[in-house]
Amino acid sequence: MKKLIQRIKRLLQRIFKKFASDSQQTSPLINSRPLDTSIPSVSPRWESVVLVCSQCTNEQSRSTASEDLENWLKSRLKLEGLWGEFRVVSTSCLGVCPKAGITVVIVNNGSGGNSPCLIVNPRCDVYDGLRLRELLYSRIKQKKG
């Protein structure tokens, strides 16, 4: 039985190698047409995405704080007519896990992967007389253009 399984494995490996080595070859399984291995892509209208971690506050038993922040940012962007250029998206854990606060990342098309994680503390909403949400919003608008 072991020998039979080994023979089947070798046969399957040869079949897979043959299809992998000659991607131009047509597949006999799909009406003699070449396999389409490309992944379709689209160009979005938005230039920047604001990622709001939904897990930060779940561990702190304030599960609505990240939702409140996300909804506030969305409504603010819509109010100023910037919703088409920006998107606000709730995401799972970003791996930063602050003791107090919500992790927010602003990613734009030209960032080249260099996007710092910002920590917004919903309990401490005032910093130097300015609301932290307003500071975050101004930081998002700086990423425009």
Summarize the structure.
The protein has 145 residues and is an alpha+beta fold. The protein is 33% helix and 19% strand.
What's the topology here?
Layout lengths: L1 H20 L26 E6 L9 H17 L6 E6 L10 E7 L8 E4 L5 E2 L2 E2 H11 L3
Task: Give an account of the 3D structure.
It is a single chain. By secondary structure, the protein is an alpha+beta fold. The chain is built from three helices and six strands; from the N terminus they run H-E-H-E-E-E-E-E-H. The strands form two sheets. Strands 2-1-3-4 form a four-stranded mixed sheet, with helices on one face. A two-stranded antiparallel sheet has the order 5-6. The protein is elongated.
Spell out the key features of this protein.
two-stranded antiparallel sheet, 6 strands, 19% strand, 145 residues, single chain, 4-stranded mixed β-sheet, alpha+beta
Question: Could you tell me the strand content as a percent range?
Answer: 15-25%
Written as H for each helix and E for each strand, in order along the chain, the element string is: HEHEEEEEH
Total strand count, please?
6
Cα separation of the termini: 65 Å
H/I helix tally: 3
Widest sheet, order of strands: 2-1-3-4
Task: Characterize the biggest β-sheet.
Answer: 4 strands, mixed
Point out poorly predicted stretches: none
Task: Please identify the structural class as seen in this structure.
Answer: alpha+beta
Which outline best applies?
elongated
Helix content class: 25-40%
Mean pLDDT: 77
Q: Report the C-alpha radius of gyration, rounded.
A: 24 Å
